[in-house]
Design goal:
The chain is 50% helix and 20% strand. The chain has helices at 2-26, 31-37, 44-58, 106-112, 115-121, 126-134, 148-157, and strands at 61-62, 69-79, 85-95, 101-104, 142-145. The N and C termini lie far apart (45 Å).
């Protein structure tokens, strides 16, 4: 019964705010800014989880060394003339050749509670620190696309 309730809760949260979180994340909003803009109260950790999943799916964060091109699959809902609904898989190729990535080991540094890293985190803005602390970084290195947020973080953490 617990699994069902958890799945139902995840579905309700995604239906209520998942799309908004993904859209605001694409616009560069921080986790706190997204939470402030939602009508439906969702914990910041849940927002960070939606952001993480979205960034991995769109190639902003790569779990392995990024390739020049990446295929992203999605499903399109279609309805025929009789009203039957079906889903068709659509693959989109994303060109990463013009993107720059930085290898990040935030998960390992947070897990180890590296004193130098934790001290450097205090120098970040509240929004950037929250990004590092709340996102579900794995212990393995990941590759993050260089954007305004990561450039600010890089300069303070000296990556």
């Amino acid at each position: 019964m617990k699994e069902f309730n958890k799945a139902l809760s995840n579905f309700i949260n995604d239906a209520a705010a998942g799309g908004a979180v993904r859209h605001l994340a694409d616009l560069g909003y921080s986790i706190s800014q997204i939470a402030d803009n939602l009508d439906y109260p969702i914990p910041r950790e849940k927002i960070a989880g939606y952001m993480w999943e979205h960034f991995v799916n769109t190639g902003k964060i790569c779990l392995e060394e990024p390739k020049q091109t990446k295929d992203i699959a999605s499903f399109v809902k279609e309805q025929d003339s009789f009203g039957r609904i079906s889903f068709r898989r659509v693959t989109k190729t994303v060109d990463n050749s013009k993107k720059q990535y930085v290898k990040c080991e935030f998960g390992k540094l947070l897990y180890k509670k590296d004193e130098e890293f934790l001290k450097a985190l205090q120098e970040l803005s509240v929004d950037d620190r929250e990004y590092i602390e709340l996102m579900p970084w794995p212990l393995n290195p990941v590759y993050h696309e260089c954007d305004g947020r990561l450039n600010r973080i890089k300069s303070k953490l000296k990556l």
